[in-house]
Amino acid sequence: MLRTLFSPRLLGLHLLTIGVLVAFILLGRWQLGVFQDSGKPHSATDPAPVPVATLARTGAQMSGEAVGRQVTAEGVYEAGRQLLVADRRADVDAPGGNVSRDHGYWVLTPIRLDDGTLVPIVRGWVAKADDPAVAAVPQGRVTVAGRLRPQQGTDSVQRRAEGLPAGQVQTISTGELINLWTGQQVRTGYVVAQPPSGSLTQVKVAPPVVGGTLTWRNLAYAANWWIFAGFAVFMWFHFVRDAVRSDRDREKSSSPEMVLEG
After folding, report:
1. CB half-sphere exposure, 208, CA atoms < 13 A
2. Is the pTM of this model over 0.90?
3. pLDDT digits (tens, 9 = 90+) for 142-156
4. I need a surface site. Which of 93, 146, 185, 187 has the fewest CB within 10 A?
5. Residue 165 gets which letter from DSSP?
6. How is 77-142 classified by DSSP, letter by letter?
């Protein structure tokens, strides 16, 4: 049997089968990886900037499609209503927590649009509240480009805002801003300026992200490749078995006992 298994005609079959198995298994793993990656969130197509008023409305929640979109706000900064958002890092997605050496303040200054509504603008980040860049608010009519973000939760405001100095807030909450900027119509959410204003540090903000959709077709392709691999093993076993049986029958027919009986 061993002589048959290691005969030249079967060695080629063994090598071919091994190559086919490796290829089919790798192809199956590739399709499985495509299937798994399809379910992960990914960056969406980044549309061209639009006026902020088209996405950030007054008295209405922001739609999920608007989050992270590029927008422009044209109007005049109201320096007298400027606030500092305390205990923040220079990244909108960075976690909060206790104040540390890399925590500082977002500089939040509203722009009054031509229709009279206010749009909260995060002009940038500073490490200290008394940084001179905080007071350097651009004068006159400006056009600010940036990315739109939804308002933040107010749970931490209820617990921690009492200990903040005047002119500081814990989160950018539209409801809280309406109470602070009394008598003003405030558009929901806020805009992170890109580039920042003056010498302020840029606050990092990611482009829109959409949830992935699982492509079940790729999972089926992976299963097909592995089924093909199993079929290749079956065919290898079939050919080897036939070769072993054929050699055994040939040996029996040529043995002395079989010759005498003949």
Report:
1. 17
2. no
3. 999 999 999 887 644
4. 93
5. P
6. E-GGG-EEEEEE-SBTTS---S--TT-EEEEEEEEEETTS-EEEEEEEEESSTT-HHHH-PPPSEE
